[in-house]
Amino acid sequence: MTANKKYILVLNPISGDVDKTEILVKTLAFAEKFKVEIIVFETSSNDDEKAIRSLYNVHKPQRILIAGGDGTIKMVGEALEQQDVIFGIIPAGSANGLAAALNLPATIEENLSIAFHNHFMEMDMISINGKKSIHLSDLGLNAALVKNYENGSTRGKLGYALQVITTLTELEEPFFAKIEANNEIIECTARMIVIANSQKYGTGVTINPDGVMNDGKFELVILKNLDLLVFGKIITGNIPINTEDIQIISTDNAIITTITPVCFQIDGEYIGEETRLDIMILPAQMKVAVL
Known about the structure:
291 residues, alpha+beta, 14-stranded mixed β-sheet, 37% strand, elongated
């Protein structure tokens, strides 16, 4: 067989609890069937971005396949942000929020079919204090949960459940925020402010029902009051968007300032405590294969 196409497969060997051997075997079999040469790159957290850029420059692939979670996808996207290439996603991380937002299917075979063949969407990203977000970031309660989860010793759904209890036990007072967007200033007291490029968290929970990932806009979802019941719905089911305790602002840039430092996370990665977020949309940043 002579391959007439080249794809790079970026494989994160330690993300999530998915068997990467199975992904590799099925990807190679798929590639052989469709006469595609696969160049495999395993991440190691040691200058991965530089290595991926070098590999791209050598092989000039038509597509980049990414088997990993949100962190891996974001790293590869940033490494190749100057290149005109299509990304195919094979969800295989502990956090697969982007895959959920794109409504990607559950099986490896279905995702390979999309990653190899389907049309693509030119997906926006969001810049927050110079860092890129691909789907959902937030200030407040959920970011505190992410921090506690990262510091905990138990992974998976049980780890999250345990940290929900810890986070609610340590619950601080709501924070005061000033939001500048759409030539308006909004002052509010909130438990959580979500900066959303998509509709769903990785759990499948809809937080931003009107989110579109390629419309040149993002949404600020302000949750003013979060009791145990509402927070439970964020973790396990759809949030009741029509309540008076929730406000949604659609914009292409914003500044959020707080009086006290507030926990902040980007795409499931805890960043730290912040008092100011400068936010802007980055239109059409990634070509991603979709259904």
